[in-house]
Structures are given as structure tokens and as C-alpha cells.
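request received
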Amino acid sequence: MPPLSGRPTQILATDSAAGLEHAVTAAVQYLLAGEAVALPTETVYGLAADALRPEAVVKIFEAKERPFFDPLICHLPGLEWLARMTRIPEPSRALVEALIATFWPGPLTLVLPRSEIVPDLVTSGLETVALRMSAHPVFCRVVQEFGKPLSAPSANRFGRISPTAAEHVRKELEGRIPLIVDGGATAHGLESTIVSVEGESLRILRSGPVSREELVKFGPVLEPVRSASPEAPGQMKSHYAPRTPLVLVDDWQEAAGLMASGQKVGLLAWSGIPELPANRTVILSSAGDLREAAATLFSKLRELDEAGLDVIIAESGPESGLGAAIMDRLRKAAGRG
Ligand code: TXA
Ligand code: MG
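response:
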């Protein structure tokens, strides 16, 4: 393995027309040279490389220290790539087309039977491939000018909190990748919803911005399967984890019972300020807006994680709609995935 740090990492802004052109050109050049670069998407920042070149994809695994058994999502430049990358069985075709017509480009990833052009490294040897099409204008420009699918997992080191700002990516991967394209804070703040299409049914493999309530309109939603092997894709318990221990409580009364004197405690509240003596308290959305809560969750978790606390106590929230995706991330942060 090459040394994992010491390489200069350039950060390019996209908030002026000239800056955007320069950043897109630089990103495409690095991608053509087989490098991995960090790009903004509408969900979280991704670490992208040429999906069809294993020697480029391997750089993603190295920079993230990601185990090879965890497969990557491929981001398509255009719909013509769907037929090239997959072998969709006839019974699933109408469902796949309806989901794509409704949610692409956007935060929905589809797991479908793969074609032979998809490298084993991308799918970790699985017979399926995860595909999505990003709606982020900067990502769209880069993938379209590159002209081929990009593998792009979240741009964090393996098992850590996904980055929702360029600065988060810098903290995770500086010295390991040549370029971070700064597109500002990401809109959704949570990773895409992942759905596998099985016949005429769907199975939610990861909750996200597209909710179960929206998906049931398209067909029966099968129950999640808990794999016997802990390393099965997306099933790892401790994920999105801050370094500081995080405890998820049902309510603040339970939190009060946990707070030992002398401990530095951080509180993560949904909307109201708890009346508890804490060293740091953050609120996901004082207006009680779930979209705002999702968009700010990971940066608030980082803020608490960097505050030198002994423990983070997080309040439980609603289990429906976007609340389900936020609760999923909090349970994983608590190691209770
Ligand atoms: O919003 C997102 O999806 C972001 C942005 C950058 O696109 N990407 C992202 O990628 O979250 P990553 O690698 O952090 O998460 C991808 C998840 C993993 O849990 C992986 O196990 C699962 O997708 N996955 C990939 N291919 C799969 C497959 N063929 N079957 C089941 N799960 C798969
Ligand atoms: Mg990830």
C-alpha cells in the first residue's frame, strides 16, 4: 500500500462561474488519470473514481481504509448506462422504470442484477450492483463530462460519520486524495435510501431521504433480512460512529438517570432544549423541521464529537418518514444498528 498521508490535497470552490469551471476540469482530469476525488452530492460528499477501472476503484478503498467486502454505489452519467450496467429481469422492469421516473436524479439507490462490465471490486463479488443518479449540479457536470459511471461511497474513513461539508472531507481524507471539490453544505445531509428490487417487490436496505411511506406506493415492501454474517453489505452495526461514546435514550428523564457527576456530557436534542446540566447541547431543528434535522445531523454529531466530551446522550425522535432515517443513523452511531 502507498503511504496514506503526506499527499497535498487541493480544495477548489465552486461558488463563482470561473471557480466552477476550474474545479470541474480539474476533477475530470484526475478521474481520467485514474485518481479518486471528493465531490459534493445532494446527500453527502462522495469519494469518486472511474467505476469501470479496478485500479482506480482500489484508490477509494485505500483512502477510506474500507474493507473490500463492502460494495460501492455507482453514479450514472445518463440513463443509457442502466442497460449497460444491469440485467433487469422482465418482472421487475415496470417497477424499476416507475422508481427511476419518480426519484432520479435524486437520493434513491437501486440494487439490481449486474452486467458483466461491472468490476468485481465494485460489487465485492455480489451478483448485484447499486446504482444511482445524483441531482447535485456539480456532481452532474463532473460525471457527464467524464462520460462514464463513477463509483462513489461517502468521503469519510470507514465506519465514521459521513461528510456533509468539504471541511469534513478534509478532516477525514487530507493527504490521501488529490482534490476536494467544495459545493457547500449538502441538501439532504443523509445518505441515499437504498432499495433492492426483487421481482415486483422492493426491500429497503438503508433508510434515507426517500421514505418507506413514499416507496409503498410503488409495490409491496419486503421486510429487511438480517444477515447471519455481520459483514454483509450495509448491515454493520457500528457505522456513522463518532469517537465519543453515544447513548440513545427514549426521553430526557432516562438521560438524567445516566448522568454521573464529573462527567463531561453533550446532549443532542431534536427541537426543545432539555433542562439538564450539560457541557454542550445541540438542537437538530428548533422549528421541529425533520428536513432541517436530517440536513444538520452529521455536522452536529461532529461538533459534539470534537468538543472533548466523555459521552453524548441523544434523544429519540419520530420513527416515521425522514425520522426513520435519522433514527437509523443515531442507532448506528450508538452501535445498536
Ligand atoms: O447518498 C449516498 O448513497 C452516498 C453518496 C456519496 O452517493 N454514498 C454512500 O455510499 O452512502 P456508501 O458506500 O457509504 O454506502 C453504500 C452502501 C453500503 O452500505 C454498501 O454496503 C451498500 O451501499 N451496497 C453497495 N452495493 C450493494 C449491493 N450490491 N447490495 C447491497 N448493498 C450494497
Ligand atoms: Mg458510507
